[in-house]
Amino acid sequence: DGARKSAHSITWCIDFGVIGAMVMVHGDNRGLVVPPIVAETQVVIVPVPPSRGVGPTRWEMEMDAIENECRELRDILLNDGARCVLDDDRKKRPGFKFTKWDLQGVPLSIRIGSREVETNTVTLAYRHTGEKVNEHLSCCGK
């Protein structure tokens, strides 16, 4: 008919501006701070190796005990419905792992080392406050 008509379109795609706004709202100088209900990973368990000064055989034995405790706790949390990851890569230092998971915004990290295995406790590190608390394993359903 020759009349001019306006074109209309809608897109439901998320663009970089929306993602940037989310990071600005849910972030700090250490990375994302994601609420547990929307976090892809709610809990990360990081085994803390013993000092290298204990000798290679004892180090292996202690590390195996730490990792066994971590696996048991992971299985309990997964059975309870938590989205949980065990970061048991022995090639990376614990500090690297803590930073990695902080940047990703995981709300809670559980740290288990030789001291925690001996005392039947865990160290809980909360991402949103930075607070670290020692708790008995029974608080984690064990």
TrEMBL record:
Residues 42-134 form the Anticodon-binding domain. InterPro entries: Anticodon-bd (IPR004154), Anticodon-bd_dom_sf (IPR036621), Pro-tRNA-ligase_IIa_arc-type (IPR004499). Signal peptide: none annotated. Keywords: Aminoacyl-tRNA synthetase, Ligase. Gene3D superfamilies: Anticodon-binding domain. GO terms for molecular function: ATP binding; proline-tRNA ligase activity. It comes from the Eukaryota. One of its GO terms (biological process) is prolyl-tRNA aminoacylation. GO terms for cellular component: aminoacyl-tRNA synthetase multienzyme complex; cytoplasm. This is Prolyl-tRNA synthetase, putative.
